């Protein structure tokens, strides 16, 4: 691939996002990725990938998806650039029972997890529609597919993403754009650190008996950007070790 196609990844400095960036570079794409506060990790990732993939371009771009003014300015700056793909990986957790939910925190999660994607997609899609090709992948959650106490706000934001991508897939299918939803279960990243004491018990509830490795999620994203995935659109793809396939009642 002499002239690599370019992909934008949100939240690409650490964890699953960093593995997605690595997988896409390895697949021959150029990648821009955003980060909010992980400047050191972002810089280290850029250095690592430039050394490993000579001739490929990778850029780290500072962006706080919660800042609507900054997001608008970022999107305005991207409209003159052509991206083949968009991976919306950035997310903001918020756990609280519905009866105890703080409205401002719930709305903040919705802004980062959902509204930022609609703004980014609107900006990048214009050139995709002109080119009659493009790929959009959203990293959602099994929380959007199965009810779980304490997940009301977070699950609602991921559920909104799911409804949005299905509509977008229908609207853009004839223009060569695919839009898909990846729904991870539990992944072995720093985000799960607060639940370390419960990990063994949680893994017993998963048919596969373990958490996912971030590279397994990244591999699915890389496939969805590849030529063989050109007919996959509007799909919901759980990557959860069988978690959503089972009835959640155990004898």
From TrEMBL:
SUPFAM superfamilies: NAD(P)-binding Rossmann-fold domains
Protein origin, superkingdom: Bacteria
Domain Ketoreductase per the UniProt entry, residue ranges: 5-185
InterPro entries xref list: KR_dom (IPR057326), NAD(P)-bd_dom_sf (IPR036291), Sc_DH/Rdtase_CS (IPR020904), SDR (IPR050259), SDR_fam (IPR002347)
Transmembrane segment boundaries: none
Pfam families: adh_short_C2
PROSITE patterns: ADH_SHORT
Family under the similarity heading: Belongs to the short-chain dehydrogenases/reductases (SDR) family.
Protein name per Swiss-Prot or TrEMBL: SDR family oxidoreductase
Protein's organism: Chelatococcus albus
Record lineage: Bacteria, Pseudomonadati, Pseudomonadota, Alphaproteobacteria, Hyphomicrobiales
């Amino acid at each position: 691939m002499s002239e690599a196609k370019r992909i934008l990844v949100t939240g690409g400095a650490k964890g699953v996002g960093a593995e997605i960036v690595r997988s896409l570079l390895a697949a021959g794409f150029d990648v821009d990725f955003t980060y909010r506060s992980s400047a050191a990790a972002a810089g280290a990732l850029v250095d690592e990938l430039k050394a490993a993939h000579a001739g490929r371009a990778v850029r780290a771009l500072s962006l706080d998806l919660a800042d609507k003014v900054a997001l608008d300015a970022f999107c305005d700056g991207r409209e003159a650039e052509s991206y083949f793909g968009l991976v919306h990986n950035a997310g903001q957790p918020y756990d609280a029972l519905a009866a105890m939910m703080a409205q401002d925190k719930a709305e903040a999660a919705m802004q980062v997890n959902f509204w930022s994607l609609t703004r980014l997609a609107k900006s990048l899609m214009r050139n995709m529609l002109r080119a009659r090709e493009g790929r959009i992948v959203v990293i959602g959650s099994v929380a959007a597919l199965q009810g779980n106490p304490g997940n009301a706000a977070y699950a609602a934001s991921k559920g909104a993403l799911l409804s949005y991508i299905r509509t977008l897939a229908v609207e853009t299918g004839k223009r060569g754009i695919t839009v898909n939803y990846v729904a991870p279960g539990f992944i072995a990243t720093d985000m799960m650190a607060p639940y370390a004491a419960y990990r063994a018990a949680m893994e017993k509830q998963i048919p596969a008996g373990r958490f996912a490795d971030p590279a397994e999620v990244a591999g699915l994203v890389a496939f969805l950007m590849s030529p063989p995935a050109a007919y996959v659109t509007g799909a919901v793809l759980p990557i959860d070790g069988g978690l959503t396939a089972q009835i959640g009642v155990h004898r």
